[in-house]
Amino acid sequence: MTEKPILGVVDYDIESSNLISSQCSVSTPINVDLKRGLFVKIGSGLSYYIAQIVDGPYYSEAKLGSAPRSQYVAELSTFVENGEPRAALSRPTPGTNVERIDSNEVQRFLGVAGSMRLGSIITDPRVSVTMDPATLSRHIGVFGTTGSGKSNTIQVLMEEASKQGFSVLVFDVEGEYVEMDKPAEMLLDRLATFNMEPAGVEDLSVYVPNPCFCHRSDAVKFGIRFSDAEKGVFGEVCGLSRMEELYFLDLIEKVAAVTPESREITLSAIIDRLSTRLKGQTDRPSMPPFIAEAHTTLYSKLRLMAGQGLIDVDARGIRMEDVFSRGRVSVVDFSDASDYVRNIVMADLLDKAFRYKIAHPDTPPLLIVLEEAHAFISKEKKDRMLATLMLIIETARRGRKRGLSLGIVTQQPAHLPPELLELCNTRVIHRMSSAVNIDVLKDSTGNVPEGLWNTVPSLGRGETIISSHKYTRALSVLMRPTCSKRIATE
Ligand SMILES: Nc1ncnc2c1ncn2[C@@H]1O[C@H](COP(=O)(O)OP(=O)(O)OP(=O)(O)O)[C@@H](O)[C@H]1O
Ligand SMILES: [Mg+2]
């Protein structure tokens, strides 16, 4: 049986009130405490308003013979007519009853449905916020300043995606997710308020680039085969100029011509060939100096990459058939990796995951999480990292309809290429104070009212605004803590 006590009634308007047409004044006995943000029902039967308390309480002196009252301002969110939500085009008449409303009904009206448990409405904790797994068929952006709760949020999304049978691949820049197979140790009281218990994810694989350290002894070391790498991206990560790149591609062709089909082209074969060229160069003083110089700088850049201990080493690559395992979370630990290693691995795995998914459409959908995305793919690097950027944008664009979604996490949305930002249809916005970052989101996020944007600089830890095409309006959500273990990197 659901208890629906009458909380109060709608008041007569008085001249001095500042109400706007979508609001009304409600008064209650003084012992009824309605928190701001609480949803209530105004009216009963088949037609009623759903409203949210936005101001109050204000206390008025008791009139002779009557009990003292509290007054509140209620914002009329919608009018329900015979069970159907409609626009609130009128206002309830004075004396109409104000009642509690079922949290299920609020959820239904907000469009909150689905089995992925994210948290609750900040201002009405009874209302839990869930997400439909279909939301993940579009990309997700998680934004916020440092320490605002982005990593917690993306880890919650990873847990929930994995429970839904998604495969998850996360590029873990700080080594925060490598123990997700263990139960959470922090924020347990907070987790309990969401009726959830600590639990690790069931299937976790941790990978670490061959030259790097990972504190998990069972992490799988991996390398990259030069023959597999996308050469444009490879050249970019090595920082080759246009001219160096031309010589690089030419060398690959020359080496390919003398390599039997049964053998792979290796980076060291390219470097050897270049080294021979360089020796010849000293014997040919007639060669224009800029060509000689391009060869020399190409040589040092390729040597630098070879020296990273990642390319053609005696460690196997990451197998996509392992990554695309239902419900598995694969973490690539970059906490000890140089920018070179991180960038080449990210580009290589994105490329492989995309090609694998196209060739094997029946595999589970994959969520790929890119943390600190602004460092990897910023607008400023657009000219130098064009091939890498195109690879990511293409993966995002074409992957969307094919069960490959990106979770992009960044403190600096203003630095993301706009093409990528636009592809993030679902946005989880944490506290942010920089106007530049807020503005770029404002310009490209629909259905967030101005009043909500104003709250962004003052959101607390884990508090967010979520905008998604699946919700009827943007929601203020307190994210739940993770059930799985987080490694604090603060
Ligand atoms: N939903 C939440 N509920 C309660 N506390 C939270 C929540 N999310 C985060 N926190 C707290 O805030 C701290 C910072 O969170 P988190 O590491 O997720 O932030 P971040 O935005 O990823 O920070 P950084 O920019 O440093 O990566 C956490 O250690 C945790 O204590
Ligand atoms: Mg973080």
What ligands are attached or bound here?
adenosine-5'-triphosphate, magnesium ion
The count of strands amounts to 19
CATH topology call of the largest domain: Rossmann fold
Overall structural domain count = 3
Q: What is the percentage of strand-forming residues?
A: 15-25%
Q: Enumerate how many helices there are, as a single number.
A: 14
Structural category: alpha/beta
The coarse overall form would be: elongated
Fraction of helical residues: 25-40%
| Gyration radius, rounded | 29 Å
N-C termini distance:
47 Å
Description:
With 490 residues, the protein is α/β, with parallel strands linked by helices. It has 3 domains: 6-101; 116-223 and 317-479, 3-Layer(aba) Sandwich (Rossmann fold), CATH 3.40.50.300; 228-306, no CATH class. It has helices at 103-110, 150-163, 188-193, 231-237, 242-258, 267-283, 289-306, 320-323, 339-359, 373-376, 386-399, 418-422, 435-444, 450-453, and strands at residues 6-10, 23-29, 39-42, 47-60, 69-81, 84-86, 97-100, 116-121, 124-131, 139-143, 167-172, 204-209, 220-222, 329-333, 366-370, 404-410, 424-429, 463-467, 475-479. The chain has a 12-stranded mixed sheet with strand order 9-8-19-18-17-10-16-15-11-14-12-13. The protein has a 6-stranded antiparallel β-barrel with strand order 1-2-5-4-3-7. Helix 5 (242-258) packs across helix 6, helix 6 runs antiparallel to helix 7 and helix 9 packs parallel to helix 11. It is elongated, with a radius of gyration of 29 Å. The model has no long low-confidence stretch (mean pLDDT 91). The structure holds adenosine-5'-triphosphate (ATP) and magnesium ion.
